[in-house]
Design a protein that fits this description.
Keywords: Heme, Iron, Metal-binding, Monooxygenase, Oxidoreductase. This protein has 427 residues and is of the alpha+beta class. It has 17 helices and 16 strands.
Length: 427
């Protein structure tokens, strides 16, 4: 028996219906997601011991409902809270951050951070990222083939975020390790011991940023870059403290580093698997922003994308949710929900994408959206410029996956055939 309805009408599933860790699922999740969306849009997973919500309409509703919290401190298995004086830097930053504070303070933090995401600040970041991408493609050169994961996806996101938050280029490895450990520290699907180790490994990174913030505060002018804008942000005398600034940096790292890695591989895979769409984007570059969202939607790279936590006993969509229970937001299943999208698995960069959930919805709409889109757009522009006739090697790019990745169906090999020799011969 793989699914059941309990005495209290609780819809239940198990690993035979949905196992996000199986290699078969990671390689080809479509049938599983279609079944969840159609038959089990809201269900209790007996093996994972959490709710799984998969349909577009259910997730859109849940993402806008404050009774389902982003803070893992509302989880029934969360570590007990500590007094401020006993907390380490990670714990203080988490408590100060966008994912934990109440809705009123969340709006306050969003308002105070707006200057750091202003056009002038983002314009400077654009220029820095453009330079990184050109350098990245210079490093690729003009081979017959190259691996899009190791040459692009593994390099660009962490370099871009490092540039954004002011980390020197000789610290990129340090910064990459910090970014990975920040993400893993609150992934409730990981064992407690692994979360604890990841949290401890973030502490040098938090100390680095706290020292940098202190230096900016002590300077005659904090600077007009991203961190400087956060330090000087003020609203009628209200300012951000050091841990609030660090929490914003942390949120941007999570969005712009981990997610963007998958953006690059899935964007390249999607375009080169659909040469007509690749040609259309070359002809109509104004479609770039829409194309990025569509490529992410169809790519559907999530394995265990996001979690929420129940803050009170709730009856929701006919199911009884108990305070402290965890919920897997199965967002990538919703991205291909046929009730929302016509021909959902067909890549169409001209598709109207109103109401998409690619970057979330509601108060917790992804804070790193701009950076992810800029990275993706500039990378695709350079790919089209350098390799207009590119295709996936042998039709599938010899694709392989990191089956142990903590939350994504991460591609860790994607071989691109450049066809530059044929291009030169034709010229």
């Amino acid at each position: 028996m793989t699914a059941s309805v309990a005495a209290a009408s609780r819809v239940e599933i198990d690993g035979k219906i949905f196992n996000p860790y199986s290699k078969d699922f990671i390689r080809s999740p479509w049938d599983t997601w279609n079944r969840l969306v159609a038959d089990y849009p809201v269900a209790w997973h007996k093996d994972l011991q959490m709710w799984v919500v998969s349909s577009h309409d259910a997730l859109m509703e849940m993402l806008k409902d404050n009774r389902f919290s982003t803070s893992y401190m509302h989880w029934e298995h969360a570590p007990p809270p500590k007094p401020f004086e006993q907390q380490n830097h990670f714990e203080r930053a988490i408590d100060a951050g966008l994912f934990v504070v109440d809705p009123k303070n969340h709006l306050r933090l969003r308002k105070l951070t707006m200057p750091a995401f202003s056009k002038p600040v983002m314009g400077k970041i654009d220029a820095k990222i453009r330079d990184l991408i050109v350098t990245c493609f210079d490093e690729i050169g003009t081979p017959d083939e190259f691996d899009a994961f190791s040459m692009i996806a593994e390099k660009l996101p962490v370099r871009s975020i490092a540039r954004m938050v002011g980390v020197p280029t000789n610290m990129e490895t340090f910064f990459h390790d910090f970014a990975v450990n920040v993400v893993k520290s609150t992934r409730i699907n990981l064992p407690a011991r692994e979360r604890e180790k990841s949290m401890q490994d973030t502490l040098p990174g938090f100390q680095y940023f706290l020292d940098l913030i202190r230096e900016r505060r002590e300077a005659a002018h904090p600077g007009d870059d991203f961190i400087g804008s956060l330090v000087s942000a003020s609203d009628n005398g209200d300012t951000l403290n050091d841990y609030q600034i660090v929490s914003i940096i942390q949120a941007v790292i999570v969005a712009g580093s981990d997610t963007a890695t998958d953006l690059h591989t899935y964007a390249i895979k999607g375009l080169l698997s659909n040469p007509q769409q690749y040609a259309l984007l070359r002809e109509k570059p104004e479609l770039m922003e829409n194309a990025i969202i569509e490529l992410l939607r169809v790519g559907a790279f999530g394995k265990t994308p996001q979690f929420r936590f129940v803050t009170e006993d709730i009856e929701w969509r006919g199911q009884q949710f108990k305070k402290g229970q965890s919920i897997l937001l199965n967002l990538t299943a919703a991205w291909i929900d046929p009730a929302k999208w016509e021909n959902p698995m067909q890549l169409n960069i001209e598709r109207r994408l109103d109401g998409n959930l690619v970057f979330g919805a509601g108060a917790h709409f992804c804070i790193g959206t701009y950076l992810v889109r800029v990275q993706g757009g500039l990378m695709i522009q350079e790919l089209m410029k350098r390799f207009p006739d590119a295709e996936l090697a042998d039709g599938d790019g010899h694709i392989d996956y990191d089956y142990n990745h903590h939350n994504a169906r991460r591609i860790n090999r994607l071989i691109v055939k450049t066809n530059v020799a044929a291009q030169r011969k034709a010229a």
